[in-house]
Amino acid sequence: MKALFLHTLAKMYSLLQTGMGWLGTAFMFGINVIIDMLTGYRMEFQTVIIMVVLDCIWGIARACKCKEYTTSDLMRESFSKLIVYSTLMFIGVCIGKVLDFNENWSLTTIAALICLVEGYSITGNMLIVFPNMPIVKFLRKIVKGEIASKLHICAEDVDDYLSHNEKST
Predict the structure, then answer these.
(1) What is the CA radius of gyration of the chain?
(2) How many other C-beta atoms are found inside a 10 Å radius of the C-beta of residue 36?
């Protein structure tokens, strides 16, 4: 567990050693400032950003557990998610303002759906990293398809994979 945590920190540290990493960090900060100035709904946007970052961190942990090489594709995918999610949320705010109803309701609904999608992905990664975690074990049947796609195996083989890894951890 300690090695996994240190490896994740090392990956995050190495991200900030490149110009692209700093550019990405500045981009996320700039998006946060612009969204706060334009809409005033910082909490919803920050929650979605946190969920995407957590998904990225758990994706790195899953890759380490499966002995896969983590590439910059993961970071590009995370930035793409942030752009798409931010656009969807901004559209929700605009629609709420145009239709003259409580735009906070539409934004909160969109943010909640995004968090559910990211939570689904995070749970799949958690179950791969820690297959004997009791809370996540409860969700095993629900996230079976997600785990199969992450491990590149059939959904029927997920239970065998997880039961084998429960014994080894």
Answers:
(1) 18
(2) 14
134 vs 132: CA distance, rounded Å: 6
Q: What is the pTM of this model?
A: 0.68
Q: How far apart are CA 9 and CA 7, in angstroms?
A: 5
| pLDDT by 10-residue block (mean), the chain, 169 residues | 72 74 76 67 82 88 80 73 85 78 76 90 85 73 77 78 67
Residue 22 identity: W
The terminus-to-terminus CA distance of the chain in angstroms comes to: 10
| Half-sphere exposure at residue 88, Cβ-oriented, CA atoms within 13 angstroms | 17
Burial class (CB in 10 A: 0-12, 13-18, 19+), 168: exposed
Q: Other CB atoms closer than 10 Å to residue 111's CB: what's the count?
A: 22
